UniProtKB/TrEMBL annotation:
GO cellular component, one term: cytosol
The protein, known as: GMP synthase [glutamine-hydrolyzing]
Superkingdom of source: Bacteria
SUPFAM superfamilies linked to this entry: Adenine nucleotide alpha hydrolases-like (SSF52402), Class I glutamine amidotransferase-like (SSF52317), GMP synthetase C-terminal dimerisation domain (SSF54810)
Boundaries of every GMPS ATP-PPase domain copy: 193-385
Active site: 78 (nucleophile), 166, 168
Keywords: ATP-binding, Glutamine amidotransferase, GMP biosynthesis, Ligase, Nucleotide-binding, Purine biosynthesis
Ligand binding (ATP): 220-226
Single Gene Ontology MF annotation: GMP synthase activity
Native source species: Polystyrenella longa
Enzymatic class: ligase
Transmembrane residue ranges: none
Length: 510
């Protein structure tokens, strides 16, 4: 395995994930892990991450100096490289050489192992305030950029390498190849590790941590909570209780699907709370989007709490927090990520429910969670299901919500999704759904005049849901959706297509 020593970089997890993409086990550890402990963990290589500090800062984090004598390959990235040079007694220059973003990197020694199969010139991504000025004794330069004479270095006799740029980000064109060269060629990793090993490790860790106590897990019908539940079930079986609050705002077939999975396949102790009437009552006559969200958030917590309290020996609460949630909520407190998060939390649970939290997916990225879910035996339809907001259909049923309108919306949405599948486009778009508008217009059906609601179709493509563009669905697909909806769903006589991007629109309509 490879250990990544985390010096506080935003991208430390990303480094670990890139290594795992090479089918090599990788663990993130504290930057000052003792050399004794490192020996126990027995890694085949170490990567020192970047970090926000300057190596000259008083609080500059430092690794155990003996790691350089372990005899295993070491790669320092950005701050990690500066640490290596600093530890070897050389100067790191601060100030006027700050460099952020794209740079052209030219290799000096194209035969170096680290640069195997990488062109002599390639684009790399820099993000640093300091850089290494003079190379410490015994080090040679492997690559440079126009402002950085030592963009990549290595020790002449020891297997110690440094990079001033970030190979883990996708903007560094050959970054993955570079990391592959390090872990596979230089460290000699076989590349036989699979997601299954990650599951084994998680399972062991959960068993040890949980002991014989009970864990409750809230299911939402989405990927993350399902994977958490499946993972816990594999780890502790009957000590797991799942709670699924049916708020009546779910997509068609969703309750049955969860019930099927978690009573038949995983055979967990599943508590389905039928809170449909409760939610409908509380939402009666409410039209303001923020008000809807608030009510749904509150009622969900109340329902969940009551059910959780009925499970007597419950000790832990499992949550499907992913790594991107962790960084987003830590960084940029005032940035857009934060705003998005605060409404993401609608349909989430507050910390003060009184349980000890466990978050087994905290170190993982979405695609790793999906891979894990498939490996754990969750059905692919669930794994690839489009995301669905906590407040559910309530924020897609504009204006006042009623049982009838929810049924209309749910059926129309099912047609949109079915036609998307029929056209083979479901996985081309990241999210698609129907929105029921409180707008009536005149139509004619048979010989009769109608005056009925409008349905909007939304389909977007996006990388991260922070920005998105409307997806150009083919006319034939739109036509099928429209015809089926108007012909088969009572109360809708007009279908429109949403052609707005985010920003300035949002993905959801409320
Ligand atoms: P917007 O509408 O803000 O949505 O562009 C971005 C993504 O977030 C989802 N979303 C939510 N998810 N609780 C959630 O769990 C919420 O309250 C919530 N609101 C929006 C939305 O479906 C889209 O994927």
């Amino acid at each position: 395995k490879i250990l990544v020593l985390d010096f506080g970089s935003q991208t430390a997890q990303l480094i670990a994930r890139r290594v795992r993409e090479q089918d090599v086990l990788c663990m993130l550890v504290r930057h000052d892990l003792s050399v004794e402990r490192i020996k126990e963990l027995n890694p085949i290589g170490l990567i020192l991450s970047g970090g926000p500090e300057s190596v000259y800062g008083e609080t500059a984090p430092k690794p155990d100096p003996e790691i350089f004598d372990l005899g295993i390959p070491i790669l320092g990235i950005c701050y990690g490289m500066q640490t290596i040079c600093h530890a070897s007694g050389e100067s790191v220059k601060a100030g006027d050489v700050r460099e952020f973003g794209r740079a052209d990197c030219q290799s000096i020694d194209p035969n170096a192992d680290l640069f195997k199969e990488i062109p002599e010139e390639s684009v790399v991504w820099m993000s640093h305030g300091d850089q290494v000025e003079n190379l410490p004794e015994g080090f040679v330069s492997l690559a440079k950029t126009s402002t950085c004479p030592h963009a990549a270095v290595r020790h002449e006799s020891k297997s110690i390498y440094g990079l001033q740029f970030h190979p883990e980000v996708t903007h560094t064109k050959f970054g993955s190849q570079l990391l592959k060269n390090f872990v596979r060629t230089i460290c000699g990793a076989k590349g036989t590790w699979q997601i299954a090993s990650l599951i084994e490790r998680e399972v062991e860790a959960i068993r040890e941590y949980v002991g014989n106590r009970r864990v409750i897990c809230g299911l939402s019908g989405g990927v993350d909570s399902s994977v958490v539940a499946a993972l816990l079930y594999k780890s502790i079986g009957p000590q797991l209780s799942c709670i699924f609050v049916d708020n009546g705002l779910l997509r068609k077939g969703e309750v049955e699907q969860v019930r099927n999975e978690f009573t038949n396949h995983f055979k967990t102790d599943l508590h389905v709370v039928d809170a449909r009437d409760r939610f409908l009552d509380e939402l009666a006559g409410v039209t303001d989007p923020q008000q809807k969200r608030k009510i749904i958030g509150r009622v969900f917590i109340e329902c969940f709490r009551t059910e959780a309290e009925s499970i007597e020996d419950a000790h832990f609460l499992a949550q499907g927090t992913l790594y991107p949630d962790v960084i987003e909520s830590g960084a940029n407190a005032d940035g857009p990520a934060h705003t998005i998060k605060s409404h993401h939390n609608v349909g989430g649970l507050p910390a003060e429910l009184g349980f000890e939290l466990i978050e087994p997916l905290r170190d993982l990225f979405k695609d790793e969670v999906r891979a894990m879910g498939l490996e754990l035996g969750l059905p692919p339809e669930l794994i690839w299901r489009h995301p669905f907001p906590g407040p559910g259909l309530a924020v897609r049923c504009l204006g006042a919500i009623s049982e009838d309108r929810l049924v209309t919306l749910r059926d129309a949405d099912a047609i949109v999704i079915e036609e998307l599948h029929n056209a083979g486009l479901y996985r081309e778009v990241q999210q698609a759904f129907a929105v029921l508008l409180p707008v009536q217009s005149v139509g004619v059906m048979g010989d009769a005049r109608t005056y009925e609601d409008t349905l909007a179709i939304r389909a977007v493509e996006t990388d991260d849901f922070m920005t998105a563009d409307w997806y150009p669905l083919p006319y034939e697909v739109l036509q099928k959706m429209s015809t089926r909806i108007i012909n088969s769903i009572r109360g809708i006589n007009r279908v429109v297509y949403d052609i707005s991007s985010k920003p300035p629109s949002t993905i959801e309509w409320e």
